Amino acid sequence: MAETATPVGILGASGYTGGELVRLLARHPRVIIDHVTSERYAGQPLTAAYPHLRAAGTLVCRPMAAAAAAAGRCPVVFCALPHLTSMKVIPDLLAAGCRVIDLSADYRLREAQNFATWYGKPHSSPDLLQEAVYGLPERHRGRIAAARLVANPGCYPTSVLLGIGPLLEAGLADPDLIVIDAKSGASGAGRAAQQGMLLSELHEGFKAYKVTGHRHIAEMEQELAGYAGRPVTIRFTPHLVPQVRGILSTCYLRPRQEVDLARWQGVLEERYAGEPFVTVLPPESLPATNEVRGSNGCVLALHQDVRTGWMVVLAVIDNLVKGAAGQAVQNLNLMMGWPETAGLDQLPLFP
């Protein structure tokens, strides 16, 4: 590691997202991981939580109280703590002079009342909601670069926004007729023990959950309204599939006028031309989650349903990488003025 490497901290390193951050940052050419936290594994090597990270060095998990003192050494801190927990520590990190990339939902919504409605509790630092920049690089790259606080997007919203945002922005789709049917691997539920995540409960099963009120709806409608220039209403149903990683979002759009498939395809191709992590396949292609596993990529494909007149966008990502830790590293690179692909050039894993 070069002497000029920038020290970073990771709060909540023993969760799936925190562990993925360590995996990516351990090979980042401009970063050194200064400290990691875990209440459960405090005082123990990180390898007690994740033996596969032995090559990442001799990181020892600290309790949050000890990490607060170390935060002053780090220009950037990743906060991979649970929802409603991050907002309790981030104001102090900012006061210590750190720039923060928050991987929880605590700063994704701009309105405090909207946050309270969807998350069931008032926000403890509502003054920061307007300052936080929504960390979707393909949408807010310039603002992210100058930000003090970046709210890393959720995994489902990342796939949906990348897939249909440009089509709404171009005025091609009706903002009031959007249906999203999304499937996620089990790692999206986190690492805490849950009966529904047991192998005997999950294997050979396939089920919907939070059919009428998934919290990511608020985030998606907020950001899609920015693309459309007006309020947007979506119908969103997530599903759990018996695999570890990956999200496939199938997005149904009602065209506002007679469809010109070449124009729809051209909007996506033009919008993502030169983007390092978004690939637009030819129309009628069928991207699969195992084509992006372990990578920071998002793959999109457009389908025209001539019989019904609807358009369908398929979007696949790895929920732990482009949907979480990889996107956070992408945001770090933007904030530090580094090449956006630094530490993220690994190819997908297959099979």
General description of the model:
The protein has 351 residues and is α/β, with parallel strands linked by helices. It folds into two domains: 126 residues, 3-Layer(aba) Sandwich (Rossmann fold); 163 residues, Dihydrodipicolinate Reductase, domain 2. The chain is 30% helix and 21% strand. The chain has ten helices and 14 strands. The strands form two sheets. Strands 3-2-1-4-5-7-6 form a seven-stranded parallel beta sheet, sandwiched between helices. A seven-stranded mixed beta sheet has the order 9-10-8-11-14-13-12. Helix 5 runs parallel beside helix 10 and helix 6 packs parallel to helix 8. The longest helix has 16 residues. It is globular and about 60 Å long. The chain starts with 5 loop residues before the first strand and ends in a 15-residue tail after the last helix. The mean pLDDT is 93.
The helical percent reads 25-40%
Number of strands: 14
Q: Could you state the order of secondary-structure elements as H and E?
A: EHEEHEHEHEHEHEHEHEEHEEEH
The level-1 CATH class of the largest domain: Alpha Beta
**Biggest sheet features:** 7 strands, parallel
Number of helices: 10
| Shape descriptor | globular
Q: Unreliable stretches, pLDDT < 50, 5 or more residues?
A: none
Rg over CA atoms = 20 Å
Question: What would the average pLDDT be, to the nearest integer?
Answer: 93
CATH H level of the largest domain: which superfamily?
Answer: Dihydrodipicolinate Reductase, domain 2
Structural category? alpha/beta
Q: In order across it, which strands form the biggest sheet?
A: 3-2-1-4-5-7-6
Q: What percent strand?
A: 15-25%
The name of the CATH architecture of the largest domain is 2-Layer Sandwich
> Which fold name fills CATH's third level, the topology of the largest domain?
Dihydrodipicolinate Reductase, domain 2
Provide the number of structural domains: 2
**CA-to-CA gap between the ends?**
31 Å
